[in-house]
Amino acid sequence: MSNTSFFWSSNIKFLRNRKKISQMALAEKLDISRPKVNTHENGHVKNPPLADMILFSDFFKMSIDTLIKVNLSKLSELKIRDLEAGNDVYLKGGNIRILATTVNADNQENVELVPIKAKAGYLAGYSDPGFISKLPVFSLPQLDPNRKYRMFPTEGDSMLPVPEGALVIGEFLQDWSSLKKQTPCVVLTRDEGITFKLLTNNSAERSLLLESLNPLYQAYEVSMMDILEVWKFHSYFTDSIPEAMSSLEQVGKDVREIKAQLQSLRAFGN
Questions:
Q1: What does the alpha-carbon distance between residue 94 and residue 206 come to, in Å, rounded to a whole number?
Q2: First and final C-alpha spacing in the chain
Q3: Could you write out the three-class secondary structure of 35-70?
Q4: Strand pairing of 111-113 and 227-237?
Q5: How far apart are CA 115 and CA 98, in angstroms?
Q6: Model pLDDT for residues 22-49, shown as the tens digit of each residue
Q7: How much is the pLDDT for 97?
Q8: Residues 60, 29: contact at Cβ < 8 Å?
Q9: pTM
């Protein structure tokens, strides 16, 4: 963050007063000291630590981006309640950033390829037009020219039968609230970088559930604060022919399907 916290300080004070609690009471709820709350409210913290920002964000049910960039005192009570209810554009991915992209000579969107050698650097350069402009580009006739696509390499076996080394084409997803349950997506997170998973929007917890197709891998949740980009799966390319499913794998698949049907029947019976 630069040498300014924008509306951070005034928003923290505004939201605390709105809840009609003292600095001491807020400090106790956040498990921090009252002087620390005071320094945040008075603008003495020019570069608020991420850990503190997450504490305030979770408590007030506002995204960090909103707390920094939006003057909440100028909003109506109805709008603030709307934000607290989870209708925060920053939490949906709507207004986090302008996507860095490239276009061809006809001013049409390119499909950039993120090669394996550039995959590690993508986390640092995803929002840098200079970095994106150096990526290889191509076009495919079956892609909608009015949508934005990017191609990413896969690593590991967590998404089998999509093989390691496949190239996955994803469509840029602006509004994460539109995600249906277990939507395959390439997702960019602060901690993991690029990963290919099944995504489910858990708006109540302000997180996304990430699952693998491979049942050997456990699902896990990632806070929406740590999600940088989401690319909805469109198709993939590979030079590998998938191996036939073994009889043991088929039995496991059948058992999982039977369990799912039984759970559905129980739910219907209740």
A1: 14
A2: 52
A3: HHHHHHHCCCCCCCCHHHHHHHHHHHCCCHHHHHHC
A4: unpaired
A5: 22
A6: 999 999 999 999 999 999 999 877 778 8
A7: 47
A8: no
A9: 0.59
- Selection from 224, 195, 196, 220 nearest residue 210 by Cα: 220
For residues 62 and 54, give the distance between their C-alpha atoms in angstroms, rounded to a whole number.
Answer: 10
Q: Each residue of 139-150: pLDDT tens digit?
A: 888 898 888 999
Cβ atoms of residues 169 and 143 within 8 Å: yes
What is the phi/psi pair of residue 24, to 5°?
Answer: -65, -45
167/153 Cα distance (integer angstroms): 5
Query: Which two three-digit tokens encode residue 221?
Result: 């949740």
Give CA angle at 196 (1, 222), nearest 5°.
Answer: 50
The tokens describing 242, both together, are: 């998938």
pLDDT one-digit tens code per residue, 168-191: 999 998 777 778 899 999 999 988
Distance, in Å, from the CA atom of 189 to the CA atom of 1, rounded to the nearest integer, reads 18
